[in-house]
Amino acid sequence: MKPTSSGTSRKSREDEFPLGGSEMGALVRALDWSKTSLGPISAWPAHLKAVVSLMLPAQAQIVLFWGPQLVALYNDAWRPVVLRLLSVQALRALVAFLPNAASLVSLEARSSTTGNRPASS
After folding, report:
1. DSSP annotation string for 41-71
2. Sign of the CA dihedral 85, 88, 92, 94?
3. CA 79, 71, 58, 11: dihedral to nearest 10 degrees?
4. What is the pTM of this model?
């Protein structure tokens, strides 16, 4: 592998993508993308890498849907939204198996919109 002018190889720079200390940046670096529909980061188009590099450190909530499977790539600011959506989706799935859990879903939905947590009994 041919070293770059800074003495690092191109492969080591690809292993460091995306640069920066964000939590989502670390998760992007840790994931084996070759097992996803996006493929390995080394095969990502330059414009996708550029958007991800701009998106990850941004303070604004940003989510990007990419590719035919609409894979969601998002930054640290968007992460709480995703976690909240996933918790509501999980509760709805629970209701499908446990009909008595409907009151729990209703309670959770109210608490997530008001920011309050239900009081424990």
Report:
1. GGGS-HHHHHHHHHHTT-SS--EEEETTTTE
2. positive
3. 120
4. 0.59
Amino acid at 20: G
> Which stretches within the chain are classed as H helix?
10-15, 23-30, 46-55, 79-97, 102-114
Angle at 87 between CA 83 and CA 88, to 5 degrees: 120
Tokens of 39: 């493929």
Read off the pLDDT of residues 72-100 as tens digits, 9 standing for 90 and up.
888 899 888 878 887 777 766 666 666 55
User: Could you tell me which of 28, 121, 114 has the C-alpha nearest to residue 76?
Assistant: 28
The DSSP bridge partners found for residue 72 are 65
**CA–CA separation, 27 vs 119, rounded Å?**
34
Burial (0-12, 13-18, 19+ Cβ within 10 Å), 80: exposed
Tallying the residues shown for the chain, one arrives at: 121
